[in-house]
Write a structure and sequence with these properties.
heterodimer; A: alpha/beta; Rossmann fold; two-stranded antiparallel sheet; B: 7-stranded mixed sheet; 5-stranded mixed sheet; 21% strand
């Protein structure tokens, strides 16, 4: 990945993070912590990898994406809006009664959303279905999905993991947003899903562990996954919950809480400062 | 004509209509029992065993359907409608995906496997889900056409099927099935029996018993539980004044519930609901169980006479 591309992706990620804050602030509810945590995975997928066309969101040959951790809809919506699937101003209607931007993603209402999710554990199974369809139809599209680490406590995830390996779905690449926190606290205190990488390996997956905020590492993992035959790939992404907003980082209290005006202003100021830094680096690069 | 279980008719229908390449069939390690193996023998490349993992199967079905597939997902009714209920609700019904949940081994007539495997609540549960069509055919010809109708219907469908071999009610040469349209299969003006599934056969025999006592019962085969046929019910209520519902299902929320809802809003009329009365099933032969739970033709006729008195 060249320097300029890296800087462009960092800019996109920062823009997405700003929108996450604005969405949750506008709605006065939602899930900022996990959304900020998985933002960099979204950034690489939608701005450096996936074959999607905002003008033709139902293209049968498109790559698919399923947000298995559906509560991180703010990150998905922000990404889709920045990508051009719908107007960015609509993000401010998130979770409102007359908006199409439901609290959890709906494929019926939102252009670019490939599957309705929100009930944990189900999205990864639907990804398996999409990947299986790709095999039946001998199509070359790929299927991507993001799971939460807390979500791994759902038994259905492991049913899906078995099925993906059993049917050798090498067109499926999933990501675990491994930030170590869930609503009630540390994942290891609530119901320990670790060792995560070892478990997926034991279930027959190709497993790659990366820094979930390093775009190059995420991109490299996606590229490696494409070369692996006969196995689905799980990219275990070590992430920081609340990444990019100092007071939200590593604090599970921000799992499902909206910032007040002052907190919103501080978060946006921090992200604006980051954006200015990136712009400065871009200017120096030019 | 020999007896055929509706599950047998289902497997045969899948094989018959399976040339449509959009059709994909999933099973959860019960393909010999649900009869999806009949489809598998003809189209092995479009049959997938998802193992003993019903929750995953329903969502895999949903994922397949997002790509334009018509997906049949089969297991026993208890595991389809109750174990995987929330998957059907959130991943199939909410996005209105083209998945046909074809659930076999419904009702008491599962027999010896007993209560854990005898689903008596599926009609109530599936009927409560928005976007879901609920079918409950009574014989081979009706099942065949119900499966064809499910293929042609764009959206989720639940089909309730039985294990027990049953007599034919309809003539396959002349019968025409339409989703949401009940079928009057016996004329009568003293009362109307509305039955579904294999209770249609018992109800016809109950009507014979009633006729021998000078009571002329109309019999309606209500193969679609949702959307329920309001017109045929209102007409029956107007013309016969008394409705009896008969189902191999708990009396709460199933056919009886659907009929009462339709009538109370459109043409209030006295209704007697016959079914399993807030109980779980138990082991035994299908015939012994129908007798024990009061669902034989004789028991139905007796209950009707008592209710009229």
């Amino acid at each position: 990945m060249d320097k300029r591309k890296e800087l462009d992706l960092r800019k996109k990620a920062t823009q997405i993070r700003k929108y996450i804050i604005e969405e949750v602030f506008s709605a006065k509810s939602g899930h900022p912590g996990g959304s900020l945590s998985c933002t960099d995975i979204f950034t690489v997928l939608y701005f450096d990898e996936m074959r999607v066309d905002p003008k033709n969101p139902k293209d049968p040959n498109r790559d698919r994406f399923v947000l298995s951790k559906g509560h991180c809809a703010p990150a998905l919506y922000a990404t889709l809006a920045v990508k051009g699937f719908f107007p960015e101003k609509d993000l401010y209607t998130f979770r409102k009664a007359d908006s199409y931007l439901e609290g959890h993603p709906s494929m019926t209402y939102v252009p670019g959303v490939d599957m309705s999710t929100g009930s944990l554990g189900q999205g990864i199974s639907t990804s398996v279905g999409m990947a299986l369809a790709g095999k039946i139809d001998k199509k070359d599209y790929r299927v991507y999905s993001i799971l939460g680490d807390g979500e791994l406590e759902e038994g259905q995830v492991w049913e899906a993991a078995m099925a993906a390996a059993h049917y050798k779905l090498d067109n499926l690449t999933a990501f675990v947003d491994y930030n170590g926190l869930q609503i009630d606290g540390n994942i290891t205190d609530v119901m320990n899903p670790e060792p995560i990488a070892d478990k997926f390996a034991a279930f027959g997956w190709n497993v790659i562990t990366v820094d979930g905020h390093d775009h190059k590492q995420i991109k490299d993992a996606i590229e490696t996954a494409k070369t692996v035959k006969g196995k689905p790939t799980m990219v275990v992404c070590k992430c920081t919950k609340g990444k990019g907003v100092s007071f939200m980082e590593n604090n599970y209290a921000w799992h499902g809480t909206a910032p007040n005006q002052e907190q919103r202003d501080q978060a946006i100021a921090e992200l604006d400062a980051l954006m200015a830094e990136i712009d400065k680096e871009i200017a120096e690069e030019a | 004509m020999g007896k055929v279980a509706t599950r047998e008719a289902y497997g045969a229908a899948l094989a018959q209509y399976g040339a449509d390449e959009r059709i994909v069939v999933l099973d959860a390690d019960l393909s010999k029992s649900t009869k999806t193996d009949t489809f598998k023998k003809v189209y092995p490349e479009r049959h997938f065993n998802m193992g003993i993992a019903e929750a995953d199967m329903m969502c895999v079905a949903a994922g397949l359907a997002t790509t334009g597939k018509i997906v049949f997902a089969s297991t026993f009714a208890i595991f389809a409608s109750e174990r995987a209920c929330e998957q059907i609700r959130n991943s199939i019904c909410y996005p209105k995906l083209n998945v046909k949940v074809c659930a076999t081994h419904a009702g008491l007539t599962v027999g010896e496997d007993g209560a854990s495997h005898q689903c008596l609540e599926d009609l109530a549960i599936m009927r409560a889900l928005p976007n879901m069509v609920v079918l409950s055919p009574c014989d081979e010809a009706e099942t065949n056409q119900a499966i064809k109708a499910a293929i042609d219907h764009d959206g989720p469908v639940y089909v309730r099927l039985g294990r027990l071999a049953v007599e034919a009610v309809h003539d396959p040469a002349t019968f025409k099935f339409e989703i949401g349209k009940g079928v009057e299969i016996r004329e009568g003006n003293d009362l109307t029996i509305v039955a579904t599934g294999l209770m249609v056969q018992e109800s016809l025999k109950a009507a014979d018993i009633l006729a021998s006592k000078g009571i002329n019962a109309r019999v309606i085969d209500m193969h679609t539980i949702k959307p329920i046929d309001k017109d045929i019910l209102v007409k029956a209520a107007k013309e016969t004044g008394f409705i009896v519902t008969v189902e191999e299902h708990n009396i709460t929320g199933g056919l009886g519930g659907a009929v009462c809802e339709a009538l109370s809003e459109n043409y209030p009329c006295k209704v007697k609901m016959i079914g399993v009365e807030e109980k779980f099933g138990k082991s035994g032969t299908p015939a012994a169980l129908l007798e024990k739970y009061g669902l034989t033709a004789e028991a139905i006729a007796e209950k009707i006479i008592k209710a009229r008195a």
